[in-house]
Design a protein that fits this description.
Structural class of chain A: alpha+beta
Order of helices and strands of chain A: HEHHEEH
Shape of chain B: rod-shaped
Structural class of chain B: alpha+beta
Largest sheet of chain B: 5 strands, antiparallel
Distance between the termini of chain A: 28 Å
Strand order of the largest sheet of chain A: 1-3-2
Oligomer: heterodimer
Number of strands of chain B: 7
Number of helices of chain A: 4
Largest interface: A-B, 20 and 26 residues
Radius of gyration of chain A: 15 Å
CATH class of the largest domain in chain B: Alpha Beta
Number of strands of chain A: 3
CATH superfamily of chain A: Winged helix-like DNA-binding domain superfamily/Winged helix DNA-binding domain
Strand content of chain B: 5-15%
Strand order of the largest sheet of chain B: 3-2-7-6-5
CATH topology of the largest domain in chain B: Beta-Lactamase
CATH topology of chain A: Arc Repressor Mutant, subunit A
Strand content of chain A: 15-25%
Radius of gyration of chain B: 36 Å
Number of helices of chain B: 9
CATH class of chain A: Mainly Alpha
Shape of chain A: elongated
Amino acid sequence: MATADSSSPLTPAVFAILLALAEDNKHGYAIMKEANTPKGGCVSMGPGTLYGTLDRLMRDGLVEETGMTDNERRRYYRLTADGRAAVSAEVVRLDAAVSSARSLGLIPKRVRS
Amino acid sequence: MSKLLFNGSVEKLYSLALRLYPQPFRDAYAPQMRQTLRDALTDRVSRRPYFLNLIARDLITSIFKEYLSMFRELYARPALIFNAIILAGIASGIALALYAIPQQVLRNGANDPQIQLATDAVARLEDGAALSEAIPAGNVDMARSLAPFIIAYDNQGKPLASQAKLNGGVPVLPTGVFDYVRQHGEERVSWQPILGNTRGVRIAAVVERVGGAHPGFVLAGRSLREVELREAQVEQMAGLTWIGMLALIVIGTLAYGWLTRSPVQRLATSI
């Protein structure tokens, strides 16, 4: 599992969850929905994958529950400082890869990232 | 109305499917997962067939992943794995000894009558006995018989007299064996004579050097067929013992891992 100082790439599900939570605190379905949008990385995941990943992210200290609920069953999650650092490190890594791909002419010119 | 009925049915089915998850995970997240499903089903933007398909695939993969994760947490402890590896190593060593020791005893025992036959024949030849006297006539079929036999070779390795035949002829030993016996006086080998189209005949052979006025070699041999059958039985028994010991180690490790799980895991699995 990812940690803030880990240099290994994050899995798509982990990255999508951390990215979704970077914007705002969210509950499970909101995270799933956000992850499935283009800005969330178009990552499809069901509740099993979502809560399994959240469970591991909470144990690794990258995500935590806010304690806020708008329904007994709908809990909200937020990024910790370590989680923010982990997602930032991944973005930097991906950015370097995208720059490299661009310099190799692998990204069509009309696409802007 | 029908949409509500459909959503209710899907939720019921999903609740049943949630029982397939490991209990700690289920206790921690099942209510939230049901709520997430409900949110998706009531979301007007959500494409229902796509979501149901996603849920089905997610159930299969995430149930497997959660069991794997639980298994890893319970058993991926260095001390537990180290002990299991040490025990598996000891079990493998014992099983190897169970195979190798009887195999060596059987194989060495297969030479016993030949050692005496070769030694006696060499002694008689060196004492000046005639070839026909030292090596009485015999008619052993090397391919079928289990009887011991003697073959005398001259100093160049050419057969002079033989009590056994293979496909009607007397097979010749590889020259390397003669060279070794010239230097060391004796060699004990497993010999696979090839004459004609006969394959698979293996002989426990003892080759001794004949000195004196007419130097040469005497080979005493016997089929290894029975010995190899016994070796195969020993191998099978040692293999079964090994598998049995490894199975016991696996069961013991799983049981020990379960009994010594951390208080948090104990609480989670007993809810």
